[in-house]
Amino acid sequence: ERSPGIPFIIVSGTLGEETAIDSLQAGATDYVLKHRLTRLAPAARRALDEAEERLKRSRAEEALQNEQQFLRAILDSVEAGIVACDARGILTLFNRAARQMHSLSEEPVPPDQWPKKYDLYQPDGRTLLRMEEVPLYRALQGERVRNAEMIIIPKNGPPRTIVSSGQPIADAQGRNLGAVVAFQDITERKLLESQLRQAQKMEAIGRLAGGVAHDFNNLLNVILGYSEMVLGEIGPDDPHRPRIEQVRKAGERAASLTRQLLAFSRKQVIQPRVLDLGALVAEMEKMLRRLIGEDIELLIRAQPGVLRIKADPGQIEQIALNLVVNARDAMPQGGRLTIETAGVDLDERFARDHPGARPGSYVMLAVGDTGCGMTPEIQARMFEPFFTTKEPGKGTGMGLATVYGIVKQGDGYISVDSEPERGTTFRIYLPPTLEATEAAQPRDASASPRGTETILVVEDDLSVRNVVRDCLRIYGYTVLETGDPEEGLRICREHQGTIDLLMTDVVLPKMSGRALATRVSSLRAGMRVLFMSGYTDDALGQHGVLARDVAFLQKPFHLTVMARKVREVLDQNRPVAS
User: Fold this and answer.
1) In this structure, are 208 and 175 located in the same domain?
2) Judging by DSSP bridges, how do beta strands 296-301 and 91-94 pair with one another?
3) Which DSSP symbol is given to 129?
4) 169: exposed, middle or buried (C-beta count within 10 Å: 0-12, 13-18, 19+)?
5) pLDDT tens per residue, the chain (578 residues)?
6) Rounded CA separation 337/329 (Å)
7) Is residue 427 within 8 Å of 364, Cβ to Cβ?
8) 508 with 365, same domain?
9) Which residues contact 233 (CB under 8 A, 6 or more apart)?
10) Is the same domain home to 499 and 549?
11) Residue 224 · residue 556 · CB < 8 Å
């Protein structure tokens, strides 16, 4: 027992056959009777040889076991799953990653049962793989499989997308010994790729929408401007008045739609100020209760005086209104609508799941409902402009698209949790600010918009220029006009009288409106400037955010609004923005 490797020979003069057998079974190598001692030397030699052979075999088995353990450790340390089978298709090897992903068992499973046994599906996640489509089986048939994608559904987890590569195993003589495949879980990568494609698609749609909205705004400016002029010139009993009013109303609806397109495309010009988000939501409570009706319970958890952001108040109200309307429409039979504001910290995981997001502290606005929820297919398209699940005539499909654009323009992020029949929660994350809140400046509504000053209008769209010129003349102003910024500079140099205001489009041929204003300031110090545009190209401020000293008029505008803005700028004692 202490030294089992040492040979042991029994030498006896009276050893019986039964005792000899018991001795051999107990571990003796041999036995020699004393009257036959000539057998002792050969027996000893044979015993030593056998002991040496046993030692070699023991060492070989130990080395083989160590090698197998080492190979097993290598296989188990690999993140990719590895599975091998013999020539009959019986699984003979799988590493830890494969066991974890596939819930593999040690029992032999024939190839025709692999898809059902291991829940192997087509990339659509609904169609079970056929045996001949399974990568390991394809490799067993001699095929070299590369990047075969499929879905597996583990027993204890959600579906996973995996990609497999495999090949047959053969010996030196080319005989088929089986097959091996390696596969990786690419679920997270597929999710990120999908999110990136969605972001790129939204960016492309946004560029298209911004360009279309810009062109429409110029057209709408003419329609709204001249319809206002005509309505101001005809009497209340004129038979044409109802028709002209319908033209104006249609123009206003179209203008509202283009504003939403600009918001989606992040081309809307905004004038942000420091806001208390909790106070803003609390102020909207009465209006929101009227909006949703009595059959929906409204729950507001807002903290006034705590959460400050720098944003355009009209845009934040637009976000809240659009999300509340969306929630209301998702609960036609009533339900509960919750609005919450809070300070939150977004971590690295959130940033990974939302391409472009940065970890850090944010102010959150959450709007949740207990309505019908959304399928994954609807969620994939919910922010696209004009996409709607409502009946024709019940919605434009711009509500969520507008929210998306406003949030992106404000360097924020959106997350959505939704399941059919379980409700939906939108969470908006906006950067906080440490600046103090600002009070909104009251407008002097009593001031007359008329005047006698001289105004230089630089607008390359002839129709828009004409309507602006005609309106300004109606209000008493002297108008100099051109569609060429170089011509505008020439007028500034050569005009004999004063020019009190430069009214210029932002986007002009040859030079921007901002560059024109800068050059004008060197020719006529103190001349005021009013910019106008249908969208922003960052000429007035980064991402459409206006500096505090910039006067701006968003196209399309009502002529009365333009006249008041012109009067406001002329009455302010400030130099040209440069």
Assistant:
1) no
2) unpaired
3) P
4) middle
5) 556 667 767 677 676 666 666 666 666 777 676 666 777 778 778 877 777 787 788 888 888 888 877 777 777 778 888 888 899 888 888 888 887 776 666 566 778 878 887 788 888 888 888 888 999 999 999 999 999 999 888 777 788 898 999 999 998 888 899 999 999 888 888 877 777 776 666 667 666 666 677 777 788 888 888 898 898 888 888 888 899 889 988 888 787 777 666 665 555 555 677 888 888 898 888 888 888 888 899 999 987 777 888 887 878 888 898 899 889 999 989 999 999 999 999 988 888 777 778 899 999 999 999 999 999 888 888 888 777 877 765 666 778 888 888 888 788 889 999 999 899 999 999 999 887 765 555 555 445 688 889 999 999 989 999 999 999 998 899 999 999 999 999 999 999 989 999 999 888 888 888 889 999 988 988 899 999 887 655 445 444 445 566 788 888 888 888 999 999 899 886 444 44
6) 11
7) yes
8) no
9) none
10) yes
11) yes
User: Which positions ≥6 away from 69 have C-beta within 8 Å?
Assistant: none
Q: Give the residue numbers spanning the domain of 290.
A: 273-430
Same domain, yes or no: 134 and 196? no
In a domain, 421, yes or no: yes
As a whole number of angstroms, the distance between CA 414 and CA 426 comes to 7
| Element (DSSP H or E) covering residue 408 | helix 399-409
Residue whose C-alpha is closest to residue 318's, from 367, 361, 248, 363: 367
Tokens 């400050």 sit on residue:
308
Rounded distance between C-alpha atoms, residue 15 and residue 34, angstroms: 10
Exposed/middle/buried for residue 400 (C-beta within 10 Å: 0-12, 13-18, 19+): buried
φ, ψ for residue 405 (rounded to 5)? -65, -45
Indicate the SS3 state at residue 401.
helix
Asked if residue 286 is part of any domain, the answer here is yes
Question: Is residue 147 included in any domain, yes or no?
Answer: yes
How far is C-alpha 458 from the geometric centre of its chain's CA atoms? 41
Q: Of 241, 264, 287, which residue constitutes the final position of a domain? A: 264
Note the residue count of the chain.
578
| Same domain (yes/no): 317, 350 | yes
For the chain, the distance separating the N- and C-terminal CA atoms, rounded to the nearest angstrom, is 100
Rounded distance, CA 367 to CA 288, Å?
Answer: 12
Contacts of 260 by beta carbon, 8 Å cutoff, 6+ apart? 385, 396, 398, 401, 402
**Closest CA relative to residue 369, chosen from 395, 340, 349:** 340
The rounded distance, in Å, linking the Cα atoms of 90 and 110 is: 6
137 CB contacts (<8 Å, ≥6 apart)?
89, 111, 114, 131, 179
The answer to whether the beta carbons of residues 228 and 557 sit under 8 Å apart is no
Residue bearing tokens 């004008």: 520
Give the tokens for residue 118: 């291991």
Beta strands 478-482 and 454-458, pairing class: parallel
3-state SS, 213-234, equals HHHHHHHHHHHHHHHHHHHHHC
Contact predicate 362/341, CB 8 Å: no
Distance CA 256, CA 216 (A): 11
* 246 and 292 belong to one structural domain: no
Residue after which a domain boundary falls, among 51, 71, 91: 71
pTM for this entry: 0.51
Taking the C-alpha atoms of residue 161 and residue 359, their distance in angstroms, rounded to an integer, is 27
CA distance 418 to 330: 12
